[in-house]
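Annual report, structural modelling task.

Input specification for the FE2/S2 (inorganic) cluster complex:
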Amino acid sequence: AKITFITSDEQSITVEGNSGNVMELAVKNKIKGIDGNCGGVCSCATCHVHVLPEYWDKIGAPSELENDMLEFDENISDHSRLSCQIQVTDAIDGVVLKVAK
Ligand code: FES
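The model returned the following structure:
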């Protein structure tokens, strides 16, 4: 799947992956602002992204556990997700994610 990240300095970077989760893909490609400090176990929120609204249906809503974690982040939006909780599959090909500040 091809995934595009928009960084906080407005750069648009498209990367490709076929396995793992979106946080791992971002870290591997050195996407600025996605740190993945907890290693992808949904307990740090350093992998927070805002899904562009038109892609929200493709990605879907966070789980209850993920929501609880997101609530600690002051920049939460209606389209917030923790990228370590999004699996990289063909189902999300073409989505655009804005890296949260
Ligand atoms: Fe820690 Fe996603 S990497 S919550």
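The longest helix spans residues 22-28.
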